[in-house]
Amino acid sequence: MIQNRFFRIGAGIALVLLIIYLGTLVDFIFVPIRSLISLTIVPLLITAFIYYPLRPLVNWLERKRKVKRSMSILMIYVVIILALVIFSMIGWPTLRDQVTSFVQNTPQFTNSIIKQVEALQHNSFIQQYLPDQGTSDDMLSKLTEYLNTVFTWLSDHISSMFSFVSNVVLVIATVPIMLYYLLKDDKKLSERLVLLFPQKFREDGKLMLSEIDDSLSSFIAGRVIVNFALCVLLYIGFLIIDLPYSLLLVFLAFFLNFIPYIGAILSAVPVAIVGFIESPMMGIWSIVIVIVAQLIQNNLLEPIIFGNQLDIHPFTIIVLLLVGGDMGGILGMLLVIPIYMAVKITIVHIYRMYIKQKIGSDFQ
């Protein structure tokens, strides 16, 4: 019995490896599939991140206010269009200028920080805590090297983040249409997906799809609301201390804070660096604002909006983020947690279906 099971598992693994190897030999077949995925990933991602926060509002208008679902969606579209028009007139010129200025001035940022560090080295109070001159020079050269790496990474990813939605025509043409039909056919879509399962597993499939939907809705909708509130707090604080590139830094923080644990650190690094370039005191105040905003988010906003934290062990999250970052950069880190949640629920339910079928066949 054990030997037969061992050989079956070994044959299954060998078959999977053989399929993967044959797939590498006919790579040209998968090129159109990769092109399709790369072309549609941005509109699908934007649609999902808008769909989950808007769905409860559409349901509320339909059930409580007795507004037809299609009319509810159109009303929300009008509000979104008005908000975008206002942002394009007020916020977008500032954001565009800050991005252009940041990318152009990136080579000068390292020199500015080195000057600030050198000024601190000549401070009589700080000098008594510094090592000897040789060691201090080595530390300064290493700092220069690290800062060059950080600013190169920042400028590359800021540019890529904005080119991320550079195909404006594709986004404008597809996102509203996909979002409309997702919101309109919300229940019908899940019912059609359930029909893909065999008849005896449709109840299990319905439960699986419901759990995936609830998990993604809780994560995406909750994170959008929490990040928006966090960014409002950060922006108010940055305006108070007159921090340069405040809107750009808030924009980065909104997206980076979708990444659990690491996102808060990643979003705080450019804030601290930009603040320190202005002056050491500005750097300290910018860090204080980030810490206070994060404390409000973690202790007040998240318990109210989320209720429970992610049902994923922190070690698992760190590993997933490392894998996602290696495979897809920032985009990979943004997508890896939702994908993991969906895959985990799918595997658990498929295993339950397998056990259910096996027990049924044993009784027969």
UniProtKB/TrEMBL annotation:
- In which domain of life is the source organism classified? Bacteria
**Keywords from the named record:** Cell membrane, Membrane, Transmembrane, Transmembrane helix, Transport
Q: Which GO terms describe its biological process?
A: transmembrane transport
Report TM segments.
7-30, 36-54, 74-92, 161-183, 216-241, 247-274, 281-297, 317-343
Q: Does the keyword Transmembrane helix apply?
A: yes
Q: Which Pfam families match?
A: AI-2E_transport
**Subcellular location field:** Cell membrane
Q: How does it sit in the membrane?
A: Multi-pass membrane protein
An annotated GO cellular component: plasma membrane
Give the UniProt family note: Belongs to the autoinducer-2 exporter (AI-2E) (TC 2.A.86) family.
PANTHER family cross-referenced by the UniProt entry: PERMEASE PERM-RELATED, TRANSMEMBRANE PROTEIN
This chain's protein is named: AI-2E family transporter
